[in-house]
Amino acid sequence: MNRSRDLGALLGRILLVVIFIISGLNKISHIAGTEGYMANVGLPASLLLPGLILSIVIELGGGLLIAIGFKTRPIAMIIFLFLIPVTLLFHFLPSRHQAGPAAMINTIMYMKNLSMMGGLLLLASMGPGAYSIDGRDEIPALGTGRRAAA
Q1: DSSP 22-66
Q2: Which of 4, 5, 98, 110 has the least C-beta neighbours within 10 A?
Q3: At what angle do helices 45-56 and 72-87 cross, to 10 degrees?
Q4: Structural domain boundaries of the chain?
Q5: CB 71 within 8 A of CB 134
Q6: How many CB atoms sit inside 10 A of residue 77's CB?
Q7: Rounded to two decimals, what is the model's pTM?
C-alpha cells in the first residue's frame, strides 16, 4: 500500500471505532441506566449483567484494538457479528412498534448500524493498513528507497 492509502486506513479505523469506544465508556459510567434500557427492550433479567459486560468488552476492548490495529480482521468480524442482534433487538424491532419521533430515531440508529457493519466488513476484508500493529512489517524503513537507488 502507498502512504496516503495507509494514512486513510489509519484515520478510517479510528473514525469507525470512536463510537464503540465512547459507547463502551458510557456503559461503564452509566451501568444502571444501561441495564434499565436493556430491560426495557425486553432482555431477560438473567441476561442483563452478562449482556452489559459483553457489550463493554466488545465495544471498548474491540474498539481500542481496532484503533491500534491489533488483530484487526477478527475483531472487526466479532463486532460485525455482535451488531446483528444488537441492531435487530434495540433498533429494528422497536421501530416497528413505535410511531413519530421515536420510530424515526430508531430507524436512523438502525441505518447507522448497517453503515458501521459495512465499514467493519471492509476492514475485515481489506485489513488495517501498514500503520497498525498488524501491518507494522509493511512500513518500509525510512531512507530504504534512497539506499537502494544509490
Answers
A1: HHHHHHHHTHHHHHHHHHHHT--HHHHHHHHHHHHIIIIIHHHHH
A2: 4
A3: 150
A4: 3-132
A5: yes
A6: 15
A7: 0.86
